[in-house]
Amino acid sequence: MSVYEQIKADLGYLKLDAAAGVFATLAEQARTEDWSHIEFLARLVAEQATADRNRRLTARLRYAKFPYRRTIDEFDYEFQPTVDRKLVEDLATLRFIDENRPILFLGQPGCGKTHLAVALATLAVEAGYRGYFTTADNLCRTLVRATHEGNLASKLKTFTAPTVLVIDDVGLLPIGGTQASAAFFQVVNTRYEKGHPTIVTTNRGLPDWGTIFGDTVVAAAVLDRLMHNAIVFNIKGPSWRLREHNGLEIAATNPTNGANH
After folding, report:
1. Residue 41: how many CB atoms within 10 A of its CB?
2. Domain 72-243 has what CATH class?
3. What is the pLDDT of residue 87?
4. Taking the model in full, what pTM does it have?
5. Mean of all residue pLDDT scores within the chain
6. Where are the domains of the chain?
7. Which residues, 6+ apart, have CB-to-CB distance to 186 below 8 Å?
8. Would you tell me how many other CB atoms lie within 10 Å of the CB of residue 17?
9. Which residues pair with 180 in a beta bridge?
């Protein structure tokens, strides 16, 4: 076995598969382009490092359970002019993570709340943080079931361990029952104490949260944690989905006559 073959085999044994896969190609390129040993080593290590970063990012994105991929650049600020673009761009620096600043997006269904929440959480995951997405209903159902099954402590970590948690659609469905309300508070409170920011979307005004939780005291305690040092967006605009629906209706009632083109 040649030295090149031995090095390639050793890279594979060390599970440096990306480096092993490009070793021969880079070695030939180094020979023809007269690279130094350090330059060759740097490029070989860079290939492995890039592959590892991409693999870990893929794993973090899979763990996060985002419902879709969205970016800040895709958001239509002209359609939703009440959204402060400069503030969103500042949040995209992820400074809110170090400052433990909760983010609340208020607005009617379809106005872009979840888009912005997912986009910011995705940026955090891409930067190396752990993120997680859940609806309020799923969070409460999961934890109430865990309470009955006797594994609440371990299930709580699903929602309290990630650096950034998105809780979507608070108020879309009522958070019924003492156990569900207590579980929601426990998640928010634990994250507050750990210094992990929570991103919340809701279609209900904050004064209505007593109705959502069925308990004004619990609602006040939740809001006390969420509103401390929070960044709040109150999106006044219409629904994206209704815009698309109206566009389809207009297209259906005014079909284009191909003979005129």
Report:
1. 13
2. alpha beta
3. 97
4. 0.80
5. 87
6. 3-57, 72-243
7. 143, 156
8. 14
9. none
